[in-house]
Structures are given as C-alpha cells and as structure tokens.
Amino acid sequence: MIYIAVGIGGMIGALLRYYLGFSVGNWWSFPFPLGTFIINMIGCFILGWLTTYLSKIKKIHPFILTGFGTGLVGSFTTFSTFSYETVHLIQLSLWGTAAAYVLFSLWGGLSFSFFGYRLGKKWFRKQSVASFLKSDEGGE
Predict the structure, then answer these.
(1) Residue 95 domain-assigned?
(2) Percentage of the chain exceeding pLDDT 70
C-alpha cells in the first residue's frame, strides 16, 4: 500500500515540477535557473512544514504522509537538475551565476526548510492549545 501512495505522489510531484518549470521557462530568459530554484525552495518549505506539523497531528495515515513527503515532494524537487544546471553554467563560463545559484540554493533551501519547520511548530502548538482548551471546557 505504501508503494502505491509513493507512486501516486511521485507522479503528481513530477507533473507539478514539469508544469512549473515549463511555465517559468516561458517568461524567464536569463541564465539563472529560476524554475528549478523556485521548485526546490517550495519543496524545502513544504517538507519542513510537513515533517513538523502533519506528522505530529496524527490525523493523516502514515502511508499518505510518506506518499506526500517521499513521493510528491521528493519527485517535485530535484538535486540532479540543480547539479546539471550548475555544471552547465560553469561550462558557459558563467562562474558568478553558478556560484550565486549554489549559494542561493544552499542558504535558501536551509532557510525555507527552517521557515516551514517553524510554521509547522507554530500551527502544532496552536492546535495543541486549542485542543487542550476544548477538552478543558468539556470537563466542566
């Protein structure tokens, strides 16, 4: 069952990645690979949030979480394309663009993961407090 969830998530993530990359490519004409950068930043944020919030609220079956995290987000983001694009920029002697891409991707990915984590933690705390207050009201 988990393989099906990961497979379905993978198909959806790959299609979303292709669509977003294609859409950005239609209007972005600079050498910086913005499509892959945006995709990877979104994926970092979502995975940070997912692992902090959704996995802790225990309302979603673990198969679905794995399908979403490993399947959808895993196929949506791409390290191999990032690596290829960086090498391609270096081959074109666009060293500054390649360095900026690597640094922005590294620091951006860590930052977006952290922001996703913080948001998930904040939402989980709010939900925990709301659940506690609700259960406390029911006990009166």
Answers:
(1) yes
(2) 94
